[in-house]
Write a structure and sequence with these properties.
The complex is a heterodimer.
Chain A: E1 24-26, H1 60-71, E2 78-82, H2 88-94, E3 101-105, H3 114-122, E4 136-141, E5 144-146, H4 153-157, E6 158-160, H5 162-168, E7 173-175, H6 177-180, E8 184-189, H7 196-208, E9 210-215, E10 218-223, E11 226-232, H8 241-246, E12 249-253, H9 259-274, H10 276-300, E13 305-306, H11 308-320, H12 327-342, E14 347-348, H13 350-361, H14 375-392
Parallel strand pairs in A: 1-4, 2-11, 2-12, 5-8, 8-11, 13-14
Antiparallel strand pairs in A: 3-4, 6-7, 9-10
Chain B: H1 11-22, E1 28-32, H2 39-45, E2 56-58, H3 65-69, E3 70-72, H4 74-80, E4 85-87, H5 89-92, E5 97-101, H6 108-120, E6 122-127, E7 130-135, E8 139-144, H7 153-157, E9 161-162, H8 171-184, H9 187-207, H10 215-227, H11 234-249, H12 257-268, H13 297-301, H14 320-341, E10 368-371, H15 381-388, H16 392-402, E11 417-420, E12 427-434, H17 440-461, E13 464-471, E14 474-482, H18 485-491, H19 503-519, E15 524-530, H20 539-543, H21 552-568, E16 572-577, H22 587-594, E17 598-601, H23 607-616
Parallel strand pairs in B: 1-8, 1-9, 2-5, 5-8, 12-13, 12-15, 15-16, 16-17
Antiparallel strand pairs in B: 3-4, 6-7, 10-11, 13-14
Classes of the chains: A alpha/beta, B alpha/beta.
Chain lengths: 393, 617
């Protein structure tokens, strides 16, 4: 969460707060203009230091899927499932530090771009046209918002600010976590234990990209597009199928059995615990390097192309595996593009597809209770067939 | 109040707590122990050896979510007009100890919140319009009686030390010792001893940063973890920390063998999922007769202060292999008894509670109030009034403006909160599969398919599935109530078959499982029996190997009376007869009738057919 705290906290529903400021692009602004509101009670977000992403040993599958989602958020998020104590949440929380910056209207709680902002504000009842030139923008790191299991629905969706209602009788909307997560990442640890009613809310919002709140006569609608990241241990419970389907990628994570790697993990962890600052410093170059590489890939992405033959192979793979719907193909294609971009290559080949097919399809195979073959093996087998065919032709 | 130093026995638990006092990063100590063994006494006495003023917060089992996490103090908020925040129990324990007695009975949402707080070191409060972070770095001390069910694995994974469970059959004697000893001691002695111990721990804390561990030793610990099949990598950090803390307690600057042994005993062995593999020929270790470790004086005798000469021997040039060899010896000393007793390995015990939608219906307690339609549940009156309260003023104005008649209280649809109970756990299907005789393999396969298939759909209904197999002398719970497909698949992988047919034992065990599930919020239980209904083994055979073989009549009588009691207890049942030979039918329909359930004749039944039968009832 460390980087998201600068994101603004609340706006008054009636008037656009930032409309009066002049047009000027400022980079990067750290502190959002504090909304007109009494100082928050002490204890406002300030989380402990996160372990650096580049210092995490192993678990390449999970790391790759997170990175690919930064490069192309349309991939649809990652579900990380696996053994306990394997660094799932550490890795996701480390993500914030390698994320690129995005531009938003200065101080906008919903992290909207100028276009989105204008669209949203002008759609309001009785709103006047806003001159885009009067809007100030700022660069913020892609937000990573943590949704704890104990969150209540009103905090997730946003609600009426009780304090303002009590003190001044004003009905002001207080945006929730979904607002903060717009254009960023929404992370749910132990996602398979999330309460049903919150899952409903998430499914709703994830499908529409919008969050709608109606309460006390106010009606708020704001964009809420985010990359959903969930993690959990499958032995603690199953994930609801609809939610499972929402995740673009499914990374699996298992206990590392390599002793040298494990010694390394222990060493790094102890080093970090002893002196977090020194440890961060040690990895700052690598962190920066990765951040740059991701940024470069993001910029390269629009130039990446894919041959029709590759697309055909992807379609055949999904068909052979008996995957319903088209989300499988779509995810593979997008992920393969992002993967090629991450490698600095402009043309997607089956080599890229091969490396990400498991991530994209594992959770989409129809489950057969008596099937002994692991989903990953099955995908590999079909992939080999498709590749064999492709080569023979 | 009994002081830490007054407690006799429980030495391993005491040692564990001392390590924790030296290094709070160990996360906590869990003590499984039988009733009356003094586990909660020792946990509470833990406060004695901590620096004065360390918070010690006891978590009540029936804690509600808002008390646990914290939230808006509505009373104060309404009174002052300014939002007043109330810290939760987790945050109150910050910098100190969170103690949970009967931690296995804690409901699953509370466990999740505790897990979350441990992994963050803080609590994220995202509730009722509040968005705050409260520090919550605490040591978790949990005690429980394994017969009440197990603690969730995810939680155990975040706690450094688990005291190996040993049946304390001599607990009565222990209690007596405690009281006699107490009678003789005066409080001054106690105070002196406590002071000494506190001083020792303080010195160890100062020593801790100066203790080093070699790479080979770390490797050996990791290798041991792998050999024991311990899941996850987090455990390595705990083992290393425990070894370091143990050396610090002895005022040494190097980790030695005994430190590593202690670390293995307290961190790894309780998490073992398999016996370590040994060179061929050594596999059949005879099970040891004596209860291990706790009663053995040698482990405890190396109390920190009296090993000053340990530093002297600096021949620490062992290879990891050699060290590992030593470790394995240590492990085997502990294992044979322990692995059968300890919580993590003994998934097959009938007492395992699994993921329990733990629910506390029985205490008539609801977990939280949440917004909802008035029709869709019980209205939670107080939360509804509380949520309506802040709006009274503004609504009254609106009311006036609209010219509506004045009412005392204006409550709108939005205010309505309904009670959310944890009883959405649906039905527990207990499969009882006859694993005896020649058709056993076939039946088992059918049952496995049905179990997996039911679980695939279980999420929607919140159903759970358990599986009991019966063969030989006694029935056995193969899969305790669970919702996890993965777990079910894993547990059902290897199944022995053949032997006698202890049908009565299966019914009895199923009934026990059903009763236990009820205390965890499951309201409906259904038996799915896959058998030909011909029991030929008496109930007694399972408990007493020397028992006289029961006669056919006795066995029939047993089955009948058990069945009738189960029926009277409100457990539903179906009996599925899959045998081909249809001439010999007779027993299975009778069994179904005694259970008040239905009989299905499904030779060659497919998994789906069984599921259908179970769901149709």
């Amino acid at each position: 969460m460390t980087q998201t705290e600068t994101a603004a906290k609340k706006t008054v529903a009636k008037k656009p707060a930032a409309a009066k400021s002049k047009a000027k692009v400022e980079t990067p602004v750290t502190a959002a203009p504090e909304p007109k509101k009494a100082a928050k009670p002490a204890g406002k977000k300030k989380s402990g230091q996160a372990f650096p992403f580049t210092a995490i040993v192993g678990q390449e599958e999970m790391k790759l899927s997170l990175i690919l989602n930064i490069i192309d958020p349309r991939i649809g998020g990652v579900l990380v499932m696996g053994h306990r104590g394997t660094g799932k949440s550490t890795t996701v929380r480390a993500l914030a530090e390698v994320l690129p910056l995005i531009e938003r209207v200065a101080g906008d709680t919903y992290n909207r771009t100028v276009e989105q902002y204008l669209e949203g504000e002008e759609a309001k009842k009785g709103a006047k046209a806003i001159d885009p030139d009067t809007l100030k923008t700022e660069k913020i790191p892609v937000p990573v918002v943590d949704l704890p299991l104990g969150a209540t629905e009103d905090r997730v969706c946003g609600t009426i600010d009780i304090e303002q209602a009590l003190t001044s009788g004003v009905k002001a909307f207080e945006p929730g976590l979904l607002a903060q997560a717009n254009r960023g990442f929404l992370y749910i640890d132990e996602v398979n234990l999330l309460d049903d009613h919150l899952v409903d809310v998430l499914l709703d919002v994830a499908a529409s990209g919008k969050n709608v709140v109606e309460r006390e006569g106010i009606s708020i609608r704001h964009p809420a597009r985010f990359v959903l990241v969930g993690s959990g241990n499958p032995e603690e419970g199953e994930l609801r199928p609809q939610l499972l389907d929402r995740f673009g990628l499914h990374a699996r994570i298992i206990t590392i059995l390599d002793i040298a790697k494990r010694v390394d993990i222990v060493k790094r962890r102890r080093e970090f615990d002893e002196d977090p600052d020194a440890f961060m410093k040690k990895y700052s170059r690598e962190q920066l390097k990765l951040q740059k590489k991701i940024q470069t890939a993001k910029e390269l992405l629009p130039e990446v192309t894919m041959d029709d033959a590759v697309l055909t192979d992807i379609a055949r793979l999904c068909m052979n595996l008996g995957i319903d719907g088209h989300r499988g193909e779509l995810t593979i294609t997008r992920t393969a593009y992002a993967h090629a971009a991450f490698r600095g290559e402009k043309v997607v080949t089956m080599k890229h597809v091969k490396e990400i097919a498991g991530l994209c399809l594992r959770h989409r195979l129809r489950k057969d209770p008596l099937e002994t073959l692991d989903a990953g093996e099955k995908i590999d087998r079909e992939l080999a067939k498709v590749l064999g065919e492709a080569e023979a032709v | 109040m009994i002081a830490f130093t007054d407690i006799v026995g429980m030495d391993l638990a005491k040692q564990a707590l001392m390590l924790l006092a030296v290094d709070s990063e160990l996360g906590g100590v869990v003590i499984p122990s039988a009733v009356g063994s003094g586990k909660s006494t020792i946990a509470r006495a833990f406060a004695d050896i901590l620096p004065e003023g360390t918070p010690f917060v006891e978590l009540p089992l029936n804690v509600t979510e808002d008390r646990l996490i914290g939230g808006v103090d509505l009373e104060a908020t309404l009174a002052t007009g300014v939002r007043v925040v109330q810290h939760g129990v987790l945050s109150k324990a910050h910098g100190g100890v969170l103690y949970v007695d009967s931690i296995s009975l804690l409901d699953s949402s509370a466990v999740s919140h505790i897990m979350d707080a441990i992994s963050r070191g803080e609590v994220l409060v995202e509730r009722e319009g509040l968005s705050e972070v409260h520090p919550a770095k605490f040591m978790l001390v949990g005690t429980y009686d394994p017969t009440d069910g197990e603690v969730r694995m995810g939680l155990l994974d975040r706690i450094g030390i688990i005291v190996p469970f040993t049946a304390q059959n001599d607990y009565r004697a222990r209690k007596k010792i405690v009281s006699t000893v107490l009678g003789k001691r005066d409080s001054e002695d106690t105070r002196d001893e406590l002071n000494m111990l506190s001083g020792l721990i303080q010195a160890a804390k100062e020593q801790l940063p100066h203790v080093s561990i070699t790479k080979e030793q770390v490797q050996a610990l990791i290798q041991t973890a792998i050999s024991l099949g311990v899941e996850g990598n987090r455990v390595d950090i705990f083992t290393v920390r425990a070894a370091l803390a143990s050396a610090a307690l002895a005022q040494r600057s190097d980790v030695e063998e005994e430190d590593m042994k202690l670390a293995i005993k307290l961190v790894l062995i309780p998490r073992a999922t398999r016996m370590p593999e040994r060179e061929p020929g050594q596999e059949d270790m005879p099970p040891q007769e004596e209860p291990p470790s706790e009663e053995e004086p040698d482990a405890e005798d190396d109390t920190p202060a009296d090993t000053p000469d340990a530093e002297a021997e600096e021949e620490q040039k062992e290879t990891p292999d050699m060290i590992e060899e030593l470790m394995m010896e240590a492990v085997e000393m502990e294992l044979p008894d322990n692995i059968l007793n300890i919580s993590l390995a003994s998934k097959k015990k009938s007492t395992t509670g699994s993921r329990g939608e733990a629910l506390n219906n029985r205490r008539g307690r609801f977990v939280r109030a949440q917004p909802g339609e008035m029709r869709s549940g019980k209205v939670a009156l107080i939360p509804t009034l509380i949520s309506a309260a802040p709006w009274q003023e503004t609504r009254r104005q609106d009311q006036k403006l609209a010219g509506r008649p004045k009412t005392a209280l204006i409550i709108t649809k939005d205010d309505v909160k309904i009670k959310r109970f944890r009883d959405k756990s649906g039905t527990l299907f207990i499969f009882m599969v006859d694993a005896s005789g020649s058709m056993a393999l076939n039946r088992m396969r059918q049952a496995k398919g049905a179990v997996a298939s039911l679980l695939q759909n279980a999420y929607v209904h919140r159903d759970q599935v358990a599986l009991i197999s019966f063969r030989g002398k006694q029935a056995q719970v193969l899969l305790p109530p669970s919702q996890s497909v993965d777990r079910a698949k894993r547990e059902l992988d290897v199944l022995p078959t053949g032997g006698g047919t202890p049908l009565a034992s299966a019914l009895y065990l199923g009934w026990e499982t059903a009763k236990q599930a009820r205390t965890k919020g499951i309201t409906q239980v259904m038996f799915v029996l896959i058998t030909d209904g011909r029991g030929n083994m008496g109930l007694q055979a399972g408990f007493d190997p020397d028992a006289e073989k029961a006669t056919k009549e006795q066995i029939e009588k047993e089955i009948e009376s058990l069945s009738l009691s189960i029926q009277a207890d409100g457990v539903a049942a179906i009996v599925i007869d899959t045998q081909m030979n249809y001439l010999s039918r007779g027993e299975a329909p009778k069994l179904a009738q005694q259970l008040g359930g239905r009989y299905f004749y499904l030779p060659n039944a497919k998994a789906e057919q069984i599921v259908e039968a179970a769901l149709s009832f």
